[in-house]
């Protein structure tokens, strides 16, 4: 095989790795190619470590379908076709065969401190080349890449989570909010499921930006914005990449930008993909408010990624914030007019949410709703949890033998969270339960 052909195969292999991995750097140095009197040598520096010898031996055994020998002398050489095993004889035979030599701890290089030499006295055969490329691939692939098979895992490591469609979260998991659900259906679900309809219309009418690519959920905490992300995954039947912005923010200089970049790169692996940027307010406070230099940098990187990602087909970005008024103007403008407000629930909705989390209370949901003025869905869910715990304690202490928590438990739980002063509280008439009054 021509030397040039070997060279080209190695370079192509490295290029291919760079292309598919999106890694900025390979885990190996640039190769050196040497060709003297028919003796081919290809030299790499890598942070392989002595343990990498096992990898080399395994790959060679599987490619050549015969055992290999490891010879210690000038470094550690793995040799194919050597029948003599270790020692002098092996040394004699070495040059006849394709060998890979690992010399650990080159003290002159800081990171890539192992020298790896592929060599053969005469030209490489096809099978030699095949073995070499496999070893190079193994050696050059950064850790990240090995997870290529499992983007889910990679995303998790980066602080994002993949929400797969799960029937547990569907539109009925969010009680009430019919107007909000309609907006989500119109601005997110339909466009994402049938982009071709919108694109066709764009073409026929000449209207631009008919297809929504970025939508912002805004509203107080506990009003179901994050839950809506899971609902959307189910209702569109798509994987949704959930990015809690806070978890991306790292104290290491420049680290956050890299993490964010990798998350978007992994997300692009999916044929169709939705990205949910949760609690963007933790990052994107207005420019005038003495924004920290690192935050400012991350914001501009985020803006670029939003732009790039949403310009692709079959993608959509959803952002969520508890404090829209604090958001950076450039960031808000990325979402255009597509802002969906998650308000606090109305009294009627609060009653429904109470019945959702405490089905047995029936009529009493009315006064619970009155007392939970200005509370969110999450507050109500927590009140119901709290009431159930109070009841558990009463059961254990023998104070109650009822199967379900009664009025007194809800009264106690709700009083703890009341949003208005005591005197206003006295205006409420508590219904008289068994233990409700005393
Ligand atoms: N309308 C609602 N119906 C049922 N549960 C709700 C409702 N609103 C909020 N919740 C519950 O409150 C909790 C917090 O909601 P979450 O989606 O995290 O709110 P946000 O992201 O807006 O802060 C969730 O467990 C959710 O199920
Ligand atoms: Mg949330």
Q: What does this entry look like structurally?
A:
The protein is α/β, with parallel strands linked by helices. It has three domains: 3-147, Gyrase A, domain 2; 150-341, P-loop containing nucleotide triphosphate hydrolases (Rossmann fold, 3-Layer(aba) Sandwich), CATH 3.40.50.300; 347-426, Helicase, Ruva Protein, domain 3, CATH 1.10.8. It has helices spanning 3-21, 52-64, 88-93, 126-140, 143-146, 151-157, 178-193, 195-205, 225-236, 245-248, 255-267, 293-310, 329-334, 347-357, 365-371, 377-397, 407-415, 422-426, and strands spanning 32-36, 39-46, 68-73, 75-80, 99-103, 114-120, 161-163, 214-218, 240-244, 273-278, 315-321, 339-341. It binds adenosine-5'-diphosphate and magnesium ion (MG). Residues 225-226, 278 line the site of magnesium ion.
Main features:
single chain; 438 residues; alpha/beta; Gyrase A, domain 2; Rossmann fold; Helicase, Ruva Protein, domain 3; 3 domains; six-stranded mixed β-sheet; 18 helices; 12 strands; 45% helix; 15% strand; elongated; disordered C terminus; binds adenosine-5'-diphosphate; binds magnesium ion
């Amino acid at each position: 095989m021509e030397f040039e052909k070997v060279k080209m195969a190695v370079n192509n292999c490295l290029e291919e790795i760079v292309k598919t991995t999106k890694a900025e750097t390979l885990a190996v140095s640039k190769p050196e190619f040497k060709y003297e009197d028919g003796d081919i040598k290809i030299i790499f520096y890598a942070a392989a470590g002595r343990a990498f010898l096992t990898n080399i031996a395994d790959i060679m055994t599987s490619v050549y379908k015969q055992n290999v020998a490891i010879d210690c002398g000038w470094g550690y050489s793995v040799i194919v076709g050597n029948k003599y095993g270790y020692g002098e004889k092996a040394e004699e035979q070495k040059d006849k065969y394709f060998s890979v030599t690992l010399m650990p701890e080159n003290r002159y290089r800081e990171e890539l401190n192992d020298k790896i030499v592929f060599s053969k006295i005469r030209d490489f055969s096809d099978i030699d080349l095949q073995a070499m490329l496999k070893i190079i691939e193994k050696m050059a692939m950064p850790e990240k890449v090995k997870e290529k098979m499992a983007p889910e895992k990679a995303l998790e490591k980066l602080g994002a989570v993949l929400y797969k469609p799960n029937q547990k979260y569907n539109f009925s998991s969010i009680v009430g909010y019919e107007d909000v659900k309609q907006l989500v259906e119109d601005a997110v679900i339909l466009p994402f499921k049938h982009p071709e309809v919108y694109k066709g219309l764009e073409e026929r009418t000449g209207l631009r930006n008919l297809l929504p690519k970025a939508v912002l959920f805004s509203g107080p905490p506990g009003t179901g914005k994050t839950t809506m992300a899971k609902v959307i995954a189910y209702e569109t039947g798509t994987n949704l990449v959930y990015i809690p912005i806070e978890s991306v923010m790292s104290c290491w200089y420049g680290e956050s930008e890299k993490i964010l970049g990798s998350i978007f790169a992994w997300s692009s692996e999916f044929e169709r993909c939705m990205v949910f940027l949760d609690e963007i307010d933790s990052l994107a406070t207005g420019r005038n408010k003495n924004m920290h230099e690192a935050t400012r940098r991350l914001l501009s990187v985020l803006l670029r990624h939003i732009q790039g990602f949403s310009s692709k087909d079959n993608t959509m970005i959803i952002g969520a914030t508890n404090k829209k008024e604090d958001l950076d103007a450039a960031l808000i403008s990325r979402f255009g007019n597509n802002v969906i407000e998650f308000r606090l629930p109305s009294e009627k909705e609060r009653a429904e949410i109470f019945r959702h989390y405490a089905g047995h209370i029936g009529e009493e949901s009315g006064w619970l709703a009155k007392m939970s003025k200005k509370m969110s869905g999450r507050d109500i869910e927590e009140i119901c949890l709290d009431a159930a715990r109070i009841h558990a304690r009463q059961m254990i202490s023998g104070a109650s033998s009822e199967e379900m928590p009664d009025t007194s438990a809800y009264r106690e739980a709700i009083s703890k969270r009341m949003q208005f002063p005591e005197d206003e509280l006295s205006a409420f008439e508590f219904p008289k339960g068994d233990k409700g009054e005393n």
